[in-house]
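Hi support team,

I've been running sequence recovery on a batch of backbones for a student project. Most finish fine, but this one hangs at about 90% for roughly twenty minutes before it completes. I'm not sure whether the input is malformed or the queue is just slow. I've pasted the structure tokens below so you can try to reproduce it. Let me know if you need the job ID as well.

Thanks,
M.K.
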């Protein structure tokens, strides 16, 4: 795939890189890895990166100080590279730059991605977009700082190499990145494991208040705006709660909701074996992966869970779900 990037960059004088709203580790890693690579190796091309504010534990990644949070009116680029976005809407504020760019290129691993750019490099089986960015780069030109960014992306989207999306190729790439001098334990501790006291408290509360249903095959918990305010946490700081719910013995699907605005919930879905939660998320206007997906739904917690339960039940064995409701 190395030629693909070189081909696309031929004759270009300006390139914008954009990732999804509420950037996660993979989004930040893929964007910053590619950004540094272009800055180092294509000095004649004006390259800018556009992302919403990133979580502070990623700010040690080289180049994050250059991230643009606003679009200059009238600004256009020869090429817009869209990373880790399942659809153009997920770009958020940088969407107009995608629309106005002379050419667009999308690199992504979401199964729900419909190949919406001019050029697309979409591999739903890939662990992360950062893994795909790795394939676009000349290995010799991957510096330690680029390796750090890509390693973060892989670590975050694989749950530190534990999810099924982490295949043999993922480990080979991780090994290559380690050889560039990445301090893996420190990166994992600082960007993935570490939680603030408030984060641990709200996690504990979400676990205490969780409810299992459908004969213990599903579990859900929710956090209201009032509770988030009480603990002083932002939505980003709720990451990891759904994963903790998912590991409950006997559970097939874990659902975590937080209230985005009154009676509108951001829904995170995780599954183990039987249920393709991306199908459930797409049904409700969202997207994602087979075992990790999300959407936004209106209604009360009860409405949202009932609606989700109906779609999840369609994928579970009838005898396991009969006469059950949320
Ligand atoms: Mn990703």
């Amino acid at each position: 795939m190395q030629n693909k990037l070189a081909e696309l960059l031929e004759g270009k004088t300006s390139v914008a890189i954009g990732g999804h709203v509420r950037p996660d580790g993979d989004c930040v890693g893929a964007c910053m890895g590619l950004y540094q690579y272009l800055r180092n190796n294509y000095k004649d091309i004006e390259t800018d990166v556009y992302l919403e504010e990133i979580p502070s534990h990623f700010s040690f990644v080289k180049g994050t100080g250059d991230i643009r949070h606003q679009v200059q009116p009238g600004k256009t680029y020869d090429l817009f590279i869209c990373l880790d976005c399942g659809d153009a809407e997920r770009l958020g504020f940088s969407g107009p730059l995608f629309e106005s760019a002379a050419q667009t290129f999308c690199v992504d691993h979401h199964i729900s991605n419909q190949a919406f750019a001019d050029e697309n490099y979409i591999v739903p089986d890939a662990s992360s977009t950062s893994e795909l960015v790795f394939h676009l780069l000349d290995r010799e030109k991957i510096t330690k700082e680029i390796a750090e960014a890509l390693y973060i992306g892989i670590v975050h989207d694989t749950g530190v190499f534990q999810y099924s999306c982490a295949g043999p190729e993922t480990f080979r790439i991780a090994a290559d990145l380690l050889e560039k001098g990445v301090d893996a334990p420190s990166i994992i501790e600082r960007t993935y494991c570490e939680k603030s006291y408030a984060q641990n408290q709200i996690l504990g509360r979400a676990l205490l208040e969780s409810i299992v249903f459908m004969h213990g095959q599903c579990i859900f918990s929710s956090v209201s705006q009032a509770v988030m305010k009480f603990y002083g946490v932002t939505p980003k700081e709720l990451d990891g709660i759904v994963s903790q719910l998912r590991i409950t013995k006997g559970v097939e699907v874990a659902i975590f909701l937080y209230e985005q605005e009154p009676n509108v919930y951001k829904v995170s879905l995780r599954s183990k074996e039987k249920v393709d939660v991306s199908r459930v998320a797409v049904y409700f206007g969202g997207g994602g992966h087979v075992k990790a997906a999300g959407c936004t739904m209106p209604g009360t917690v009860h409405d949202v869970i009932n609606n989700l339960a109906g779609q999840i039940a369609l994928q579970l064995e009838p005898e396991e779900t009969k006469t059950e409701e949320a």
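--
Follow-up from support: It reproduced on our side and the slowdown came from queue contention, not your input. The pocket of manganese (II) ion is lined by residues 26, 84, 109, 128-129, 157 (CB under 6 Å). No action needed from you.
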